[in-house]
Amino acid sequence: MKNIIRSIFNSLVLGLIVLCAVFILLANSNWFWDIISPVFYKELIYKYSTIQELDPLLISAVIKVESNFQPYAKSPRGAIGLMQIMPETGKEMAKRLKIEPFVAADLNNPEINLQIGLYYLARLKKQFNGDLYLVLAAYNGGSANVQKWLDEKKIDDSSLAGQRDGDKFIAQIPFEETRGFVKKVLWNYKWFKNVQRVKNTLQFKQNNQA
After folding, report:
1. Across residues 81-103, what is the average pLDDT?
2. Domain range spanning residue 18?
3. Of 2, 9, 73, 105, which is the most exposed, with the fewest CB atoms less than 10 Å away?
4. Which candidate in 53, 66, 88, 177 is catalytic?
């Protein structure tokens, strides 16, 4: 009986060692990270992020949370597409961008959705002086609501002095959905940055070995 248990234990240990070795080998390849952390429509994301001077990894995080990269996603409130844009917002931004004619169904088009969504985010970034927390809260909860919260001191504006306490700020957001949105986007943003850092390191090693 002891021999059987020892044999099973040894097999498990050996299997674990093999799995670890396989994982290490896989983790040292960029395609592995592309599989476990996929980003779709990458070329379009980078194209319009560059135009609007936004971080493409942040945009990827927003899309991941909003639609999980599904271009035909539609929320119960009627938000459409990759960046879950409301038709009214889409119409206003499309007019500013001279995307005409425009109908709500155009928001299912990944390129139009990203063009409008990133333009809108860039406007929010300018409105809130580049404060990431305020920008994300405004994207989900509405810029008018965020400005109202600031005016009524429901959320602090300490970030204007570069002293934002992220957890404290998120806890102050009156809308539960917006609190959750900001948390999820920031988590995914951190994840995408970590993955990109690993991929950059792997690429650097490969270039040096070539």
Report:
1. 97
2. 1-36
3. 2
4. 66
